[in-house]
Design goal:
alpha+beta, globular, 4 helices, six-stranded antiparallel sheet, five-stranded antiparallel sheet, single chain, Jelly Rolls, disordered C terminus
């Protein structure tokens, strides 16, 4: 598990064991996660999405606090997973990182509260599963248009993006900032510092 260039983002490339029966890997290790991030993984919701080739979901985020951290992997097919720094005051505000997630390398991405998240399906039937630190709350959920020219995310040129009506109507990063819809870097990092180091109760898990 290693950090990426945006503060609060890590990618995990597990060891995959292969034999005549198939493959096995540990896609989450609580100890390794705590060692890298400095806190336990809080789990309130687990999601699964299946997408047609070219489907583009995001850029989604939740207000902080409490925000919604995500631990994301692709169990079938392949997606281009993108994390966007939308935190005002962040030294990397407006930048993004991309990681290919697929059913061969079995990488996973963890993004902290307050960061934007999106992915595009590179193959038909691509299935993404992700663990969320908070449950879905419509009043706290927002989005940035994934084709915002200011972000200039490098989506695959050979695919036609297929967006939901909600994502297609999302504001640009600049518009969201003017409307006061973006989380602040200070609030996000302060929230992360307050997360429990150890597993407490049923809201933190070891999978």
């Amino acid at each position: 598990m290693r950090p990426l260039g945006i503060d609060g983002v890590w990618v995990d490339t597990p060891r995959v064991f292969t034999d005549s029966r198939g493959r096995f890997h540990e896609w989450f290790k609580a100890g390794r996660f705590r060692e890298m991030t400095g806190h336990a993984l809080r789990l309130e919701q687990a999601n699964c999405s299946r997408s047609v080739r070219g489907a583009l979901r995001g850029v989604h985020y939740a207000t902080v606090p409490p925000g919604q951290a995500k631990y994301v992997t692709c169990v079938s097919g392949a997606v281009l997973d993108v994390v966007v720094d939308i935190r005002t005051g962040s030294p990397t505000f407006g930048t993004w990182e991309s990681v290919r997630l697929d059913d061969r390398e079995h990488r996973a991405v963890y993004l902290s509260e307050g960061l934007g998240h999106a992915f595009m399906a590179l193959e038909g039937g691509s299935t993404v599963v992700y663990l969320c630190s908070e449950g879905y709350a419509p009043q706290r959920e927002f989005g940035i248009h994934p084709l915002d020219p200011m972000l200039a995310i490098e989506w695959p040129e050979d695919l036609t993006p297929e967006l939901s009506e909600k994502d297609a109507a999302a504001p640009t990063l600049a518009e969201a900032e003017l409307l006061g819809l973006l989380p602040s870097y200070e609030d996000c990092t302060g929230h992360r510092r307050g997360l429990p180091v150890g597993i407490q109760g049923e809201s933190c898990v070891s999978l």
